[in-house]
Amino acid sequence: xxxxxxxxxxxxxxxxxxxxxxxxxxxxxxxxxxxxxxxxxxxxxxxxxxxxxxxxxxxxxxxxxxxxxxxxxxxxxxxxxxxxxxxxxxxxxxxxxxxxxxxxxxxxxxxxxxxxxxxxxxxxxxxxxxxxxxxxxxxxxxxxxxxxxxxxxxxxxxxxxxxxxxxxxxxxxxxxxxxxxxxxxxxxxxxxxxxxxxxxxxxxxxxxx
Length: 209
Prior knowledge:
The structure is a single chain. By secondary structure, the chain is mostly helical. The protein has 8 helices and no strands. It is globular, with a radius of gyration of 17 Å. The protein starts with 10 loop residues before the first helix and ends with a helix.
């Protein structure tokens, strides 16, 4: 429901949730068993059905409150070791990396805007509940993420980087959120490759030592 909030209302939300729970969701949430995160699949279905896409900033204080609540809940779960803290930190690093790149490009082009504007071209995108949800509850899901430690770091950084770029550079709300959710699905698909890559690297290092 939180991930669909900036996407659409009504029957599109219901259909997205139904697809997420029936088709995209595995009966058993084994590590690495799901090709794609069901919430992101449902959100993309909702986008396809949406006649109007809501701006994240239009929710105002309610969006900020939900974002804070999601972040606090995620921090509590990380403290309880129910989720791995590396994933949200990696997503945050990816978002910061995207912001730094945008700031450098803006400065090089002579656009001397405040740092906050240079970092977040899409107003409210960073305060969006969906972005916080992705960092704490989607990137940390072992059923659609990486199993290796290095893979989890790169997986999270790439999600944060691609999501932030999509929300910052794509002006149309529909395109922006397709880009954000599509970035997560893309990295879900890349997770097995990342695990295989770093597993081979670790094995090679072990043989060399």
